[in-house]
Amino acid sequence: MDPILNSGDTAWMLISTALVILMTIPGLALFYGGLIRRENVLNTIFLSFVTFAIVSILWLVYGYDIAFGSDIWGILGNLSNPFFNGILETKALSTYAPTIPTSLFAVFQMTFAAITVALISGAIVERMKFSAWLAFIPVWLTLVYLPIAHWIWGGGWLYQLGALDFAGGLVVHLNCGMAALALVLLMGARKNAKLLPHHLGYSVIGAGLLWFGWFGFNAGSALGANDLAISAMIVTNTSAAVGMLTWMLMDKLQTGKPTLLGALSGVIAGLAAITPAAGYVNFPAALVIGFAAGICGYLAVTHLKPRFGYDDALDVFGIHGICGVVGAIGAGLFATSTINGAIAGGLFFGNPSQLGVQLLAIAAVGVYSLVMTLIIGKIIDKTIGLRVDEDHEIEGLDINLHEESGYRL
Fold it and tell me: Does a structural domain hold residue 238?
C-alpha cells in the first residue's frame, strides 16, 4: 500500500516543530540570560536568536540534504535538492516519516540543528566575540552537526550498525557538550569565573519553556500522533522530575540546602538524559535514567569542573554532554521491543551487543566533535580572534558589543 498523508500526524508534527522552536527562542535564551551578569544579558540572549536565524536559512539551502539525503559511503547525504529545490512544490511524503510531508520533516529536523548550536553558547558567554560566534555557527553546523546527524539519523554508518538515539542524546547533547568543552579549553577562563545569576526569574521561565517544549522534542520524534509519542512523553516528564528531585537531594546532602538553580539544573539533566532513550524505554527505566542523570550531572558540575579547572560557564558539558552519555548508555541497557517494535532491545532485554554499539557511538561522536571543534575554534582564533578585549569583558558585552543595556544604567 502506498503511503498516505495522515492529517493527525501532520498536525502533531506541526505542533512539535513549534514546540522545539519555543525551546530555543525564547526558552534557552531566557534560561541562559538569567544565569549570567546583568551586563551581559542581551548578548547572551542574542546568541540564541541569531543562531536560530542562521541555521534556519542554511538548513534549507544545503543542511537538510547533507544530513538526510541519500547516503554516500556512510558519511554524508547527497546534495540533491539545494535551496530546498522542488521539495515544497512536489508535496512528497517523507521517506523517514511516510505519513507527513518531506517539507514538514525537514523543518522539524531544522529545529534540532538550531538548538544544538545554540546550546554551545552557554559555555562561552561573557567572553566570546560576537563576530567569532557568527563565524562559528555556519562552519560548525556544516562540518560537525551535519555529518553526525547523517551518521545516526540519516542512514550513515552508525545507523547501519544499529546505534540508538531517539531524539538526540548523541546528535544533540553529547555533540554540543564536547564542542562546548573544546571552545572553553581554547578560550580559557573568564576574568570572573563565578556563576553569578543576575535574575533567576528569567531562568525559571526559560527552564519551564524548555521542559514544556521538550515534549515536542522527544514525543515529536515519534513522527506521528501515536502510542510511541505518548510513551515518549511520559518517560520524558518522569526523567525530568526525577532529575530535579535527585539534584535537590544532592544539594541537601552536600551543602545542607536545596537551591532553585540546582533544581533547574536537575530538570535539564533529566531531560537531556532521557532524550536518546525516550522512544525505547519504559517507566521504571526512566526513573533510573533520571536518577543517574541527577547524580552524574551534579558531580560533573560540582566536582569534575573544579577538579580540572575549565570554565564551562553554564555547564553545557557537565549537564548536556555527560547526561547525553548517561542516556545513550541507558538506551543500550533498557531499550525494549515492547515499547518500540522496530528494535531488538538492550542488554537487560536480551541484546547485549546493543550496549557495545552505544559505547562505540559515544566514542565516535565525542571524539569527532571535540577534535573538529578544536580545529574550527583555533582557525577562528588565528583569524578574527575568539575572545573579546579584556576591558570589554570586565565592563560587560552588552554596552561594548551592541551599545545596548538590558537595564537602566
Answer: yes
Residues 297, 359: Cα–Cα separation, whole Å: 19
Q: Are 76 and 146 in contact (CB under 8 A)?
A: yes
**HSE of 348 in the Cβ direction (CA atoms, 13 Å)?**
14
Residue 107: half-sphere exposure toward Cβ, Cα within 13 Å: 17
359 to 89, 136, 140, 163, 327: CA distances (angstroms): 41, 28, 24, 9, 11
Task: Give the CATH number of the domain where residue 167 resides.
Answer: 1.10.3430.10
Question: Which segments of the chain have a pLDDT < 70?
Answer: 1-2, 409
**Three-class SS state of 340:** coil
CA-nearest of 170, 128, 79, 164 to 335 is: 164
Give domain status of residue 44, yes or no: yes
pLDDT at residue 361 in the model: 98
Q: Could you list the residue range(s) of the whole structural domain that residue 182 is in?
A: 7-402
Alpha helices in 91-199 (DSSP H): 102-124, 130-140, 146-153, 157-161, 175-187
Please provide residue 195's backbone torsions phi and psi, each rounded to the nearest 5 degrees: -80, 115
Give ∠ CA 25-287-367 in degrees, rounded to 5. Answer: 60
Report the candidate in 105, 27, 20 with the shortest Cα–Cα distance to residue 275. Answer: 20
In this structure, the dihedral spanned by the alpha carbons of residues 169, 359, 240 and 11, taken in order and rounded to 10 degrees, is 40
The number of domains in the chain is 1
Q: What is the pLDDT of residue 1?
A: 58
pLDDT at 193: 81
List, for residues 362-388, the tens digit of each pLDDT value: 999 999 999 999 999 999 999 999 999
The pLDDT, as a whole number, for residue 118 is 98
Query: Which of 372, 307, 299 lies closest to 147, judged by CA?
Result: 372
Cell of 376: 574550527
